[in-house]
Amino acid sequence: MQPILKIESLKKYYGKGDSKTLALDGISFQVMPGEFLGIMGSSGSGKSTVLNCIASVIKPTEGSIELNGENISKMSGSKLATYRGKEIGYLFQSFELIDNLTGRENILLPVALHKSEGDPNERLNKLISYLEVDNIVDKFPSQMSGGEKQRIAAARALILDPKIILADEPTGALDSKNAKSLMNKLEGLNGESGSTILMVTHDSNAASYCSRILFIQDGKIFHELRRDKVSESREDFYQRILKVMAQLGGGSANVL
Fold first, then answer.
1. Which residues fall within 8 angstroms of residue 202, CB to CB, at 6 or more apart?
2. Across-strand partners of 38?
3. Taking the model in full, what pTM does it have?
């Protein structure tokens, strides 16, 4: 099986001269189709920089990023717009919903911006049902709780059936109950629908839903954990995550 995402020798510098800072120091890894990969690290470790490079929000200084064998750094114009709009689905910590659009209109916004195959309403109805937003989909964001906003945002990220979902601290603005609900939904999408998910998080609870975790420190990958979902419970995986995070000076108190 070929990787869906391949990162090779990724480097990112910020600033110039004496003020130059190395955020990523030659990171390499692969994401396989249907994998739920987590990236963890303390603040300033470079984990969000990795995600932003993959999303083409920022351009790496060196190295390559390939999605299905195509180097995104060589994309431009309409091809890059298609990559950003259809090939990846981005789930933000701060939801990024448009206030004057209803939940339904927010979800369908990518459909209005990018051509899609098939009937988008069929996929919309499936997502609304799966994410349990039937009763809020016609409300405005100001009428929704944080958990409801994030589930609407998740539906928007998924509406065009992207090849990979990029989740940037998706539980960061949620309480423990809504965080658990969202992670259960993402785990379900990964397990039942085969969605490929790459999630950056500082939260050990959220990370325990992943099948593999890369730990980043000072712009380098320094450790990796894999979970055998057949033989290892999420609670046991969580405890292993905590041990690694203790070396980084972070973690969470209780598994959800």
1. 40, 41, 42, 43, 169, 172, 250
2. 199, 213
3. 0.90
* DSSP run (H or E) holding 196: none
Mean pLDDT of 119-147: 92
Q: Residue 83: how many CB atoms within 10 A of its CB?
A: 18
Residue 251 has pLDDT above 70, yes or no: no
Concatenating the DSSP letter of every residue in 205-249 gives: HHHTTSSEEEEEETTEEEEEEE--TTTS-HHHHHHHHHHHHHHHT
Check if the beta carbon of residue 30 is closer than 8 Å to that of residue 6.
yes
Q: State which fold the 5-248 domain adopts.
A: Rossmann fold (3.40.50)
Cα–Cα distance for residue pair 150/181, rounded to 1 Å: 10
Residue 220: half-sphere exposure toward Cβ, Cα within 13 Å:
4
Question: Residues, the chain, total?
Answer: 256
Q: What is the pLDDT of residue 19?
A: 82
Alpha carbon distance 131, 152 (integer Å): 8
Q: How confident is the model at residue 250 (pLDDT cuts 50, 70, 90)?
A: low
**Domain layout of the chain by residue ranges:** 5-248
CA angle 49, 95, 245 (to 5 degrees): 45
